[in-house]
Amino acid sequence: MKLKYIFLIFSGSLMLLTAASCKKELVDINKNPNATQNPQPDYLLTAAIKNTADTYWGTANNMDASLLFVQYWAKIQYTDPDRYIYSNTSFQDLWGIGYSKSIVNLNKIISLADAQANPNYKGVALVLRSWVFTLLTDQYGDIPYKQATNIEQYLTPAYDKQRDVYFALLDDLKAAEADLDPKGKAIAGDLIYGASANNITQWKKFANSLRLRIALRISDREPDKARQVLADVQTEGSGYINSNADIAELVYLDSPNQNPISNLFDTRDDYRISKTIVDKLVELKDPRLPIYASPTKDATPQTYVGIPNGLLVGDASNLGFTKTSKPGVYFLAPHAPAVIISYAEVLFDQAEAVARGLITGNAADLYNQAVTASLNQYGITESTTVNTYLAQASVKYDASNYKKSIGNQKWIALFGQGLEAFAEWRRLDYPQLTPAVAGTLNGKIPVRFIYPGTEQSLNGASYKAAITDQGPDLLTTKLWFDVN
Fold first, then answer.
1. Over 50: is that where the pLDDT of 224 sits?
2. Domains detected in the chain
3. pLDDT of 259-274, one tens digit each?
4. Residue 3's pLDDT is what?
5. What are the phi and psi torsion angles at 414 (to 5°)?
6. Whole-prediction pTM value?
C-alpha cells in the first residue's frame, strides 16, 4: 500500500511537470512572429493614449450615450439611444477597451519603468491609468481596481467599492506627482504634451488637476478627505493646469488617425445638436453658439435649430435633415482635439472648492476666469465680447447657489466631453434637464451605465457582489458619489 501511494504521488507530480513543460512549449510555439516580445514603453504609451481617447470621444460612450444624456447632441435617426433604449452590450466598449487595452498597457509601462529606472514613465502611466479608472467608476460605480492591476493573477477580479476606488486613485496620483521629475530621464510616445522640455512639468499639473477633479467628486460624501487632498497639492507646490496651453488633450491627425466624430460624420448623418443646448446659448447670447452648432443647410427662420432629445423616429425625421443643425464644424474637423481636462474646468473646480470651504480664495473671481478661459479656448478673446457676456445677470456668479452658477456654465464649457459632463451633471444637479420626450425610464434620465453582459457570464460572482453593494444593475440606480 505504501509503495502504491508513493507511486501515485510520483505519477501525479510527473503529470504536473509534464503539463508545465507542455504549457511552456505551447507558449514558445504560439509566439506571434509579428509582435515584439520586448515591448517599448514609448510605443505602449502612444497606444494607451490613442485607444483611450478614441473610446472616450467615440460612438458608444460619447455619441450614443453621454452626449445624449446631458443633451449636447440628439438623434434625428435611429433614436433608440436618445430614448434610453439599450442592451447589455451597449456599454461594453469603455469597459472592454479600458481594461484590456488601456490599463494592461499602462500596467506594463509601470513595470518597465521600474526595471529601467525611469520614474517619469511610471508617473505618466499612473496619471493616465488613474484617468481611465476614473472614467470607469464614474460611469459604472463599483469596478475591479486592486485585482485589475494584476490581471494575470486574477482572471475574475473582485469589484471594489466606488469610495475605495476614488481613494486609491488619489493615492496613485499623489505617487505619480512625486515620481514625475522635470530633471529626470526624458520619455517618448507622449501624444498629449509631446517631447517638449516642459512636458513633465505639464504632467505634474495634469496629475494635480485630476486630484482636484476627484476631490470634488467625493466632496459631498467625504469633505475632510477632499480638503486634505487639496491641502497636500498646495503644500507640494506643482500647481494645476494654469493656461489653455496646458490643456490635456489629444489633437488628432488626418485619416486614418482623425477624430472619431469626424470619422463618423464622413459616412453617417443621424446626429444633430440638441435643442436644449441651442436654446440656452441663444438665451445667453453666447458667442460659442456658432462654434458648437452648424447653420442649417436650408434657410430657416433661426440660423441654428436643435432638436428635442428622445423623439420617436418619425417625429425626429419629420423635422428635416436640412432644416436642423449638426454639431459645429470645429467638432467635425479631422484634427479636432479630444479634451481630457481643460483649463476652464480646473478654474471651475477651484471656484467650487472655495465655495465649499475646501480651499481659500475668491470663488467669483475664479468663476469669471473659468468662463473667460472657456471662451478663449474657442478663440473668443475680444475683451468687449467677454466682458459683455460676463456682465449679464443670468451669467453672473451667484454665491447663494454656487452649484447652479458653476453647474450651468461648466455644462456649457464641457461641450463635447460627454463622460465628464455626465458625471458633473449628476454631482451638481445643474443644469436642470427635462427627460427625453419619448423616454423609456418613466420620466427619468440615466444616472449610470449598466455593466457589460459579459461580466454576468464571465465574472458572475464579482458582478453579483457589486449589485448587492450598490443596487440593481439599472440605468436609474444612483452611484455612491451622486447624493442628491
1. yes
2. 41-251+335-470 (1.25.40.390)
3. 999 999 999 999 999 9
4. 32
5. -85, 10
6. 0.91
Does 2 score more than 60 pLDDT? no
pLDDT band at 37 (very low <50, low <70, confident <90, very high): low
Half-sphere exposure of 39 (CA within 13 A, CB side): 21
Rounded alpha-carbon distances, angstroms, from residue 131 to 65, 135, 335, 474: 19, 6, 22, 24
Residue 459 CB contacts under 8 Å (≥ 6 apart), including other chains: 156, 157
pLDDT interval class at 143 (50, 70, 90): very high
pLDDT tens for each residue of 337-360: 999 999 999 999 999 999 999 999
Q: What are phi and psi of 273, to 5 degrees?
A: -75, 145
Q: 245 phi and psi, to 5 degrees? A: -70, -20
Report how far residue 125's alpha carbon sits from residue 48's, in angstroms, rounded to the nearest whole number.
9
